[in-house]
Amino acid sequence: MKVLITGATGQLGLALLKQLKNTDYNVKITSRRKLENFNFECVYSDLLTGEGLKEAVNDVDVIIHAATSPRKDSDIIDVSGLKKLLDISQDIKHFIYPSIVGIEDIPMKYYRNKYQAEELLKNSSVPHTIVRASQFHSFVENLFLSKSLFKRYLVPGEIKFQSVDVDEFAAHLIQMSEEIPKGKTEDFGGPEILTLREMAELKIKVNNESNKVVNLSFPGKLYKSFLEGKNTNEHQKVGKITFEEYLRNRVVHK
Known about the structure:
Layout: E1 2-6, H1 11-20, E2 26-31, E3 41-44, H2 53-57, E4 62-65, H3 74-87, E5 94-100, H4 109-122, E6 128-133, H5 137-144, E7 152-155, E8 160-161, H6 166-176, E9 183-184, E10 194-195, H7 196-206, E11 212-215, H8 221-227, H9 243-252
C-alpha cells in the first residue's frame, strides 16, 4: 500500500511524517513549498494551478489530504483545488479528508469552504473517509495566548474549546489508512472542554507567569457560535493529551 500525504510541510502534514518515519509504510509526499531533508519520495504540486497533481497521485493507493489554507485563498485551495485532485483520483482506494468539528454551524469563510469541500467529496465517486477534529492545542495557544499585553491576556474568555493534540490526530488518520472507507466518520475531539479563560489560567500556572486574564466580549454570530461550543463535541472525547499536558511538554522541550 502506497500512501500520499498532501500538504506535507504544514502542521498536520509534518505530524504525519514524524510518525511515518522509520515505519514500513510506503510514503509519498507532496507540497507547494520546498521539500527538503525528507526521507520520502517527494513531488512538487500546486492545488492553485493543478501543476504536479497527476504525478503526485500516480501509483498511490491512499491519499491523506492534509493540504489546506485558512487564508484568503482557501476557496481556491480547499474547494477548487480539492475538485482538481478528486478528478484525477478516480482509481484511489481510499481518500482520507481531515476536517473540523462544527463547521456547518460556525459562520467563518474558511469553515464554509471546508464544509463545501466535504460536500464535494460526499458527492464524488472516490471512496473516502471524512474525519473531523476539534482545534489543535497549538492553534488555540498561538491564536489567543501567544503573547500577553501589559502582563495581561486579553481574550474572549468565555468561548469554548475542546483542543486536541495534533500527533494524536495524525496517528488516528494513519490508522484510518489501514481501514475501509467509511464516508463521514465520528469526530475526534480533545479530552476536555475548557473556556479560553481556563486555558489562559492553565498557561499562567504551568509557566509560573505573573500575567492576569482580562475577559472580552464581542457581538455577532461568530462569537456566539464559539460561546455555545459549536466547535466542540462532548460525546467524542477521543484524545488523551490535555491542554495542560501539552503546555507542560512544551516547557520540558524548551
